Amino acid sequence: MNLDKTKTLLEFINKVGKFENILGEMQYAFIGFVIGNDALCLEHWTQIVNFLCNCENYCAANPSEYCQFVTVLKRQLSQFPIDFFYDSISKDSFLRGSLYNLFDNLKDHKDITLTNEGEKLFNMLKKKYKLDVHDIEGLDD
User: Fold this and answer.
1) How far apart (Å, rounded) are the C-alpha atoms in residues 46 and 117?
2) CA pseudo-torsion sign 104, 107, 110, 111
3) What is the structure's pLDDT at 90?
4) Could you report the per-residue pLDDT of 88-132, keeping only the tens digit for each?
5) Three-state SS annotation for 71-139
6) pLDDT tens digits for range 77-87
7) How far apart are CA 135 and CA 132, in angstroms?
8) The pTM is what?
9) What residue segments make up the domains of the chain, in order of their start?
10) Which own/partner contact pairs does 15-22 have at CB distance under 8 Å and 24+ positions apart?
11) Residue 67, pLDDT score
């Protein structure tokens, strides 16, 4: 079940100045986790990703900004090890549910650039992690 968090996102953007600042924080947290092996950075990164994946109305109203998020997420996810989605720790993690919501937001979107970026993300997940649409759709049960 996807509870749209767009209202909260808009309030947060109002506080931090612009959407790109949130992406910068996401990148900072990711680097802190990857390079520094900092568990708090991983937690912060997961919170940001989960939050942004659940902003359906923002995606519809701001496709170019949401496309930036999808691009950054694709690049970051490509850095994880091959077994990340099948590891006993991360297998049932937030990420699968967040990706389900993200792809649900992108489904039938009218912005071709955003749709193409979403397809690139999906194809990368399918190729690198052997995830297919059925794996992600299975979360809806």
Assistant:
1) 20
2) positive
3) 52
4) 445 556 677 888 899 999 988 999 999 999 999 999 988 988 876
5) HHHHHHHCCCCHHHHCCCCCCCCHHHHHHHHHHHHHCCCCCHHHHHHHHHHHHHHHHHHCCCHHHHHHH
6) 999 887 776 66
7) 5
8) 0.88
9) 6-140
10) 19/62, 19/65, 19/68, 20/65, 20/68, 22/48, 22/52
11) 98
* Type of residue numbered 8: T
- Nearest alpha-carbon partner for 56 in 128, 117, 8, 89: 8
Give the closest residue to 7 by CA, choosing from 76, 61, 58, 78: 58
Instruction: Tell which residue, 113, 107, 10, 17, has the closest CA to residue 58.
Output: 10
Token representation of residue 35:
């390079």
